[in-house]
Amino acid sequence: MLLKTFGWSFAITALGLVAAAFYGGWEALGIVAILCILEISLSFDNAVVNAGILKKMSAFWQKIFLTIGVLIAVFGMRLVFPVVIVAISAKIGPIDAVDLALNDKDQYQQLVTDAHPSIAAFGGMFLLMIFLDFIFEDRDIQWLRWLERPLAKLGKVDMLSVCIALVVLLITSFTFATHAHQHGGAHVDKAQTVLISGIAGLITYMVVGGLSGYFEDKLEEEEEREHEAEEEAARSGKQRPAIVLAGQAAFFMFLYLEVLDASFSFDGVIGAFAVTNDIVLMALGLGVGAMYVRSLTVYLVRQGTLDDYVYLEHGAHYAIGALAVILMVTIQYQIHEVITGLVGVLLIAWSFWSSVRRNKALAAAEGKATAPDEKTEVPSGV
Questions:
Q1: What tens digit of pLDDT does each residue of 181-219 get?
Q2: DSSP annotation string for 210-227
Q3: Which of 91, 169, 225, 342 is the most exposed place for a label (fewest CB within 10 A)?
């Protein structure tokens, strides 16, 4: 089962790591491995969401999402998008950006370094908004209750996450401007760039969120109509199969999944800039990681068990929050790539361990609850 589902991912992983080793030696191989883990850890909740929606769709639309959708995710967001980011921020053409990445690494590195403040501000704000909206939402299951419970209460204040994100952006921009002024004002324009790029990141998040909400509302309307039709069929005595979304509902579902996948893959792409500026290593690492997300989605659909490790989604969002902070800090200070990669891995591992402990505690509690009944039933049967 595992080999059948993850076989292609294993094969592409081997090819990607070998290509990285040939491209830049052991250091490049290590960076690609970290990017793979980063992409998988950040996109685990994406796979869970995909699987939960995908199981409602017909076999045709499942195949469309897992083929065309993967092509869009891997080649569009993970390979093309990093080139576009560098091209826009460095004000060069996409072909020139790829040519520099392959043939003039020093100049490309300098262009990316010069563009890093705008990239970090844009990505940092986007990631920060995802984390804040998650942490301020009132949830039935809470991981770090001492932190999440009071924050959920604060989250009832309208637009709080936007206000906090803007305050963080203003503080970051002001700090950067002060730092630049102390060095003779040579980089004063960069402070304005940080502010503008951060606002652009915030707008991008709100647009993506708005589209997702629009498609989600459409889906809820379609599902409600399907449910009413099913009830009508039951009253009239006609046989009606279980709800399998197709047609317009499935099309909206597909669009909704693509918007979600784009937003989650955007996290990985932006987070990757905190690990490396090498577009080749970025493409290899994120591409391999995206294949695992696809395989994990298929696995979850086939297994039908999405709730075994309930804290993993929390861990992934805390990793997103950590990456947001790291990106904002790297506007002024350099942070080692290994630290950046390990923060996310450790948070995911911690949330997984917490989920396992929770499952064991629940199993033990159920055992204690059923034990007295078993003891009283035995004598009555003798």
A1: 444 444 446 788 889 989 998 998 888 777 767 776 776
A2: HHHHHHHHHHHHHHHHHH
A3: 91
pLDDT tens digits for range 361-375: 888 888 776 665 544
CB neighbour list of residue 50: distance below 8 Å, 6 or more residues apart: 65, 257, 260, 261, 297
Q: Name the DSSP class of 144.
A: S
Angstrom distance (rounded) from CA 98 to CA 111: 12
Q: What is the mean pLDDT of the chain?
A: 75
Radius of gyration of the chain (CA): 24
43 or 242, greater pLDDT: 43
The packing angle between helices 105-135 and 94-103, to 10°, is 120
Amino acid at 208: V
pTM: 0.70
Burial of 96 (0-12, 13-18, 19+ CB in 10 A): middle
Helix axis angle, 59-71 to 247-273, nearest 10°? 30
H helices present in 237-335, as ranges: 247-273, 279-303, 312-329
